[in-house]
Each structure stands twice: as C-alpha cells, then as structure tokens.
Amino acid sequence: MQTTLSPTQLPQVQDPRNNGTPLDLDWIMAVQANTSAIERRAATLPGRRSVKKDHQAAWLCKAISLIDLTTLSGDDSAGRVRRLCAKARQPVRADLLAALGMQGLTTGAVCVYHDMVATAVDALAGSGIPVAAVSTGFPAGLSPFHLRIAEIGESVKAGAQEIDIVISRRHVLTGNWQALYGEMRDMRAACGDAHVKAILATGELGTLRNVARASLVCMMAGADFIKTSTGKEPVNATLPVTLTMIRAIRDYHDRTGIRVGYKPAGGISKAKDALVYLSMIKDELGDRWLHPDLLRFGASSLLGDIERQLEHHVTGAYSAQWRHPIG
C-alpha cells in the first residue's frame, strides 16, 4: 500500500463543497447492490494489503490524522471533554512522535453532543482542530423536525464547524426518496458554512441496496460526508457497507465531478482495522480521499490501540493499554 502523498500532507487545493443536484429518481431506482459479490470482495480485503515497519507506522499516523475523537455518553462532563481535546491536540506521547519525526500530528476533529460544543471549542482554541456536533435528535432522529433544525442552528451558533445529522430511517425503508431528499436539503441549509455529515444508520436500513440509494439521495441533497452509523446501532461500520457507500461516492463523483467525504463509525477499534479501511479507500477512490477533508474515522478506543502499535514500532515492546489513556 503505497501513495504518492506523504501520510500527513494535506492537499494543496481544497475541493468545492457539494451543493447537491436535483433529485434524479431514475438514477436512484437504477441503483442495485449485488450483496454476494460485495461480501466476497470485502472478505478478501484484510489479506490483500500488508504494510510493515516504517510504512505501517506512517499509515497509522495517517489514520490518527483522520480520527474524529468522540465522546457521546450520558455522563459526559466538561472535564472529560477537556481531557479529550487535550488528547486530540497531542494524540501520541511526545517522545514517540519525536522518534517517528511526526511532531505536530493531531486528530481530524473532536465530536461531542451539543451541550459540550462550547467547552470543546474553548479547549481547542488556536489548534485548528474543528469541533463536530451530533445533532437532529441523535441517535434516533425522531424528535419534531423543527426542533431538529433548531438544534443544528444552536450547535453552529456555539461554534461547531461540522454537524453530524441523522436521517429518518423510515424514508429509506418505505422508499420515500423525495421526503429523504427534502429533509436532507433543509438540514444542509440549516448548517450554513458548517459541513454536514449525513449518518445513514446503515445497520437499520435492511439491505445494501437501501444503503446505496440512501447514500446517493443524501449526496444529491448536498451532504459533505456520508457516514455509516451513530455507533448506537446493533451493527455499525462493516466492510460490505463501506464498499457499498464508497462506490456510491465514486459514482456521484464520476457523474458530477464533486467529491463527497466518507466516515465509517462504530466498531473500528483496532489499528489493523484502520489499515484495512485505508487500503479499501485507496483502491476504490484513490489517494485524494486519504485526507481529513474527505475521510474520517468515528472512534475513540482506536487511538489507544494505534498508540500502542506505534510504541511497539519505536521500542520493540508492547505496553499496557492504561499507558495510553484517551482522556
């Protein structure tokens, strides 16, 4: 797995935002998903790409730069969020970063509930790390629509630069693509300059065909990212779902010229899993998607495992997990 871009180098030219397209029902209804073929392809991925030694360390540092470091617990406190933000600023121990020559490495963002946005914004001031807020009645998305729209506005007002919204799953399950499109357009408009990640909750959509069609509708409606899961469903990010969604992204780019980002979330906790996802993105979408403006991992425990792997690379010994606290 090699790339022409340095693992932490940002692209020189940022792509324009996805302003969406008119709803094209013919395109949507033509979308199919060959589940058995997708599952076979996904099953081959863990054994097809292998990186070792310095190359592995570089790609793990790349993965860190793509993490939306997340806390979405009912017992979140200002102290916990501040500790998480400190970890986002310094995701790996300074001595390890110095040994790797990777000073200045940070995570891609910090993701919190609305009530903690102001705390996170204050804790990250001057770092350049954006704050993402989960919104619109997260995780179920079943609160009154006007309140979901108002919640977006409040999070933007509090300083969130990214909004992770949840779609109404019933629109997908009933095939009401016009309703999903209209909902997504309204949410995109409410975000203003803040980028919007559309959470599909793929574990609740029934089929990969529904996942593919919902991905396409959300992109048509102006989503800057499409995201697998809230992390609260019984099944979250999987390789077959990822393959389905990134191929929808590729199709959208081929037809419109617009790049939309991708965020797998939930269940990605091991460094080796992150490497598999990175190799899939490189194979299917190319190097341009290997940057924080187009790829994020929704995770928390993933960072701890990556830090353990990096310490092993530097020292030759594995350390206990408690030596690499997240917050």
Description:
- By secondary structure, the protein is α/β, with parallel strands linked by helices.
- It has one domain: TIM Barrel, CATH 3.20.20.70.
- It contains 13 helices and eight strands.
- It has an eight-stranded parallel beta sheet with strand order 7-6-5-4-3-2-1-8, with helices on one face.
- α2 packs across α11, α9 crosses α10 and α11 (239-256) runs parallel beside α12.
- The longest helix has 18 residues, at 239-256.
- 47% of the residues are buried.
Tell me briefly what this model is.
With 327 residues, this protein is α/β, with parallel strands linked by helices.
Structural class: alpha/beta
Helix content: 40-55%
CATH architecture tag: Alpha-Beta Barrel
What CATH calls the topology is TIM Barrel
Strand content: 5-15%
Supply Rg. 19 Å
Q: Tell how many strands the DSSP assignment holds.
A: 8
Shape: globular
- The named CATH superfamily: Aldolase class I
Biggest sheet, spatial arrangement of strands:
7-6-5-4-3-2-1-8
Biggest sheet record: 8 strands, parallel
Question: Averaging pLDDT over every residue, what do you get?
Answer: 93
Please report the number of helical segments: 13
CATH top level class name: Alpha Beta
